[in-house]
Structure to design on (392 residues):
């Protein structure tokens, strides 16, 4: 794929590779900086420092096209909302519930050991997807986490650069918004055509996809992908949407498990990112002066003084932890008849069974959140029908 080998030593190999990496992260505007300034420094220094220096007023820099068809004047910091004569603003349709500081910090990487063949298939598919993503986004061997301990490892010998992180996160978040929408859509259609209740699943699934899209939009305000990455996103969505569609029709249970494992990886990834920021491996993002985009402040209602990149990724990680717990739990339920425990009100005295998805990486078992129905009493033997007598 496009960024093979870029991570080893960008300037040592060739400035063309630096350009390629920059474009993959949507940094075509900075191409002259990448070529002329970055060497022997790394791409992140040249590109991100410019963003830091002038987040709202980037000078126009003529760029020659190599891997990007995105011209400089098309690059913007934000997607400006359309100004209309009457509308003042359009707030988020799904208000984010918010997290306490304690909740943000209590999120930990976790893993649900596969218990069925379906679980095992889902788990292996996710691991395969992770391997392919590492390959596609040019993550070098020394930058990969310990592959022998895939359920716990969040540390690599060498950190990623800001540009590499942006490539990876934008690609992954564009994919992550698909499953919730597919599942919600299919359950919606099922309810319509079978004339049956859905029991509260659709809203949670659609909200999940909305939340993932907000992750993507937030990252997009930091870097707009070049045409190559946009093409990758287009192709990946085509494949992934159809795969999710068929998979959910065949086995919603396995599909929710697959998403649960995908979200485990997301929590791992963001935990690693937060760690690298805290260690100062990403100097520009570690800088408390690097404020997060306005769209993030509005959506998560980030309080004053809590608007650093570390804070932003703590919120996103907590969201991923919720998706992880929700999908593992939904996979454990009876798909057609159980209510969604995350939006349900519980009977008096049973409130303790209401789940908190972020707290349980492996999800809740059905017995914990729905309860065990008492075995139905054996019905009294009915009198044999006249027909039965005939055959007796
Ligand atoms: Fe996400
Ligand atoms: Fe997620």
């Amino acid at each position: 794929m496009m960024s093979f080998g870029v991570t080893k030593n960008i300037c040592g190999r060739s400035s063309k590779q630096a350009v390629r990496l920059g474009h993959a992260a949507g940094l075509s505007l900075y191409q002259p900086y990448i070529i002329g300034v970055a060497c022997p420094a790394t791409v992140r220094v040249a590109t991100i420092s410019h963003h830091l220096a002038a987040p709202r007023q980037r000078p126009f820099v003529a760029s020659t096209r190599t891997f990007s068809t995105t011209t400089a004047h098309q690059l913007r910091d934000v997607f400006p909302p359309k100004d209309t004569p009457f509308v003042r603003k359009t707030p988020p349709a799904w208000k984010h519930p918010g997290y306490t500081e304690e909740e943000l910090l209590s999120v930990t990487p976790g893993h649900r050991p596969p218990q069925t063949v379906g679980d095992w298939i889902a788990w292996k598919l996710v691991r395969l997807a992770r391997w392919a993503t590492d390959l596609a986004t040019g993550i070098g061997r020394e930058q990969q986490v310990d592959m022998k301990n895939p359920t716990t490892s969040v540390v690599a010998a060498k950190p990623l650069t800001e540009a590499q992180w942006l490539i990876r996160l934008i690609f992954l978040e564009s994919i992550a918004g698909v499953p919730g929408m597919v599942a919600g859509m299919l359950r919606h259609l099922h309810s319509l055509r079978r004339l049956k209740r859905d029991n509260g699943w659709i809203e949670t699934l659609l909200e999940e996809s909305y939340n993932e899209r907000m992750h993507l939009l937030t990252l997009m305000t930091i870097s707009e992908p070049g045409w190559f990455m946009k093409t990758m996103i287009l192709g990946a969505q085509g494949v992934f949407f159809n795969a999710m569609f068929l998979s959910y029709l065949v086995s919603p249970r396995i599909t929710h498990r697959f998403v649960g494992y995908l979200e485990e990886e997301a929590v791992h990834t963001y935990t690693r990112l937060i760690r690298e920021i805290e260690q100062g491996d990403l100097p520009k993002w570690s800088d408390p002066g690097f404020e997060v985009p306005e769209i993030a402040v509005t959506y998560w209602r980030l309080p004053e003084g809590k608007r650093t990149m570390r804070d932003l990724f703590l919120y996103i990680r907590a969201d991923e932890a919720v998706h992880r717990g929700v999908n593992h739990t939904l996979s454990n339920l009876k798909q057609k008849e159980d209510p969604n425990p995350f939006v349900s009100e519980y009977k008096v005295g049973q409130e303790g069974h209401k789940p908190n998805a972020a707290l349980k990486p492996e999800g809740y078992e059905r017995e914990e959140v729905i309860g065990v129905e008492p075995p139905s009493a054996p019905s009294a033997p009915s009198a044999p029908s006249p027909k039965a007598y005939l055959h007796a």
Notes: The mean pLDDT is 79. The CA atoms of residues 332 and 366 lie 6 Å apart. DSSP finds 16 helices and no strands in the chain.
